[in-house]
Amino acid sequence: MIAAVAALGALAVTDGPLFELLAYPSDYEAGRLYGIVTLVLAGTTLGLIAVTTSMSIAVFVGTVLLVGYGNLAEQLAHRWTDRDVVHTAAFCVVATVAAVVGQSVARSIADGAAFESLSPALPTMLFLGASGALLASLLRDILFANDDPVVMLTVGLLGWLIAELEPALALSGGEIVVALAITVAFGYLSYALETASIAGMLTGILLGLLTIVLGGYGWFAVLISFFAIGGLSSKYRYEEKAERGVAEDNNGARGSGNVLGNAAVALGAVLGYAASSATLLPGNPEPSLFLFAFAGSVATAMSDTLSSEIGSVFETPRLITTLEPVEPGTDGGVTWQGEIAGIAGAIIVATISYGLFDAVATVGAAIIVAAGVVGMTVDSLLGATLEGRVLGNQSVNFLATLSGALVCALLVLSFAVLG
């Protein structure tokens, strides 16, 4: 009933300040707020999912308010300034607050409890709100621009997943605020230094927040080492690389596709670790296996990035499959300087992991280095054989990091069985 009233009300508004505030770009030609109508339909669909599955009503309410009020805040920010980063910040801040308030009200009504009694659930609600706001802003910026119905459904499904991992959340509300502040600071620094676009910044912040909350600060230190060193390496002799036609686009600023291509497997390992710690996975796999898979994937990403960014400024590369000289920038082309830089990148990740995790002893560190080198080699082999014909660059990055993760986990498992 509420959804029907809201949809009819949206159709009744055809002009005026309210129309200007709520209209999507496509609504101006039609003269109707069809965007709001589809948003209401998406909310109704999400509500049906909530009442027929294990998704909580609090996640549903929080998601609806997150998208609705976040969108409103962004529209108001557009009237104040033309800076895209301010529009993004307005959306994320207001969306997070709206999501937390919505979840609090829904939990209070469902449990018949006062707001004061909800404090134990505050960390989870804050984490859900912040991660949902970051994902929504990212989707609106790049993947599904002005398609809030798709954004709402996607964010709702993410919230459902995170809520299922609640037993693995060990941080307090204050600690999550600190984690959010740290990841935002690193993300904005990457944007300010032009090593990441707004979409890349949002992706990095979201990945960092999920990594800290579901893994820990040690995991985040490993991940941020890749973002920091990899981002700076793209600036290394940039003008020379641009002249040779091998420089990253956008002055070296990495977008969401690049970030996700290199870090999606690492994120999967973090989620696997949290699910394993909460005994949600069949067979109860050892959580440390996911730690090594995470380190192996990051070592691969670091090795591949340093190999490409540093090796591309040296002598003519050779195709890894035939060792024939090829033009700079050719997929699958390698240089001995790049290979050394790649090995150094894997050693950096292994050293950080060795210093931060008790589970990573000397043998474990050596395995991480080996996994990084294997993943870097797989990237080059895929580049020489399939990239550009069957696979895109981000798919190659994903498969390479996946190979590094699997090699690392399997070698650790083999040593555990033999030893």
From TrEMBL:
The chain crosses the membrane at residues 33-66, 86-106, 118-138, 176-193, 205-229, 259-282, 334-352, 359-378, 398-418. Keywords: Membrane, Transmembrane, Transmembrane helix. It comes from the Archaea. It is found in: Membrane. InterPro entries: DUF92_TMEM19. It is a multi-pass membrane protein. One of its GO terms (cellular component) is membrane. Pfam families: DUF92 (PF01940). Its main location: membrane. Belongs to the TMEM19 family. This is DUF92 domain-containing protein.
